[in-house]
User: Which sequence fits this backbone?
């Protein structure tokens, strides 16, 4: 499979959009089995089982999620997405978090997903510890 600019962008946009539907299998379906997910500055998570577990924890902690793309740049196999992530926690707290994600795509799957954001800001707003 050729990872064109357009295919790479569509994969990432579909993944980001899938959070609103809250279906774990749809969300995880974009990832390669050996993918790495890194919420900087915490430790990277390696492999789809670990990624599935952290995404499940996120879904269990909030009742609403929208990952809103501000700016997106794509090349074959590489997508950079500046976002504002909106979450509503189960206790009603609202989180609004600026994030920049870097996605490496290979053979139509995300193989590396790195998010850069202010960890203290996220934890303060959400009460969720990463």
Assistant:
């Amino acid at each position: 499979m050729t990872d064109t600019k357009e295919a790479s962008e569509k994969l990432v946009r579909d993944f980001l959009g899938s959070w609103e539907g809250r279906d774990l299998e749809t969300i995880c379906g974009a990832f390669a089995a050996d993918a790495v997910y890194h919420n900087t500055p915490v430790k990277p998570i390696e492999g789809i089982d670990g990624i599935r577990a952290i995404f499940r924890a996120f879904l269990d902690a909030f009742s609403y999620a929208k990952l809103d793309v501000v700016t997106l740049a794509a090349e074959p196999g590489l997508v950079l997405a500046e976002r504002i992530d909106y979450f509503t926690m189960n206790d009603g707290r609202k989180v609004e978090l600026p994030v920049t994600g870097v996605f490496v795509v290979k053979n139509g799957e995300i193989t590396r997903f790195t998010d850069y954001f202010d960890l203290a800001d996220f934890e303060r707003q959400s009460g969720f510890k990463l």
The chain has a mean pLDDT of 95. Residues 93 and 127 are 9 Å apart (CA to CA). The longest strand covers residues 62-75. The chain has one domain: 5-126.
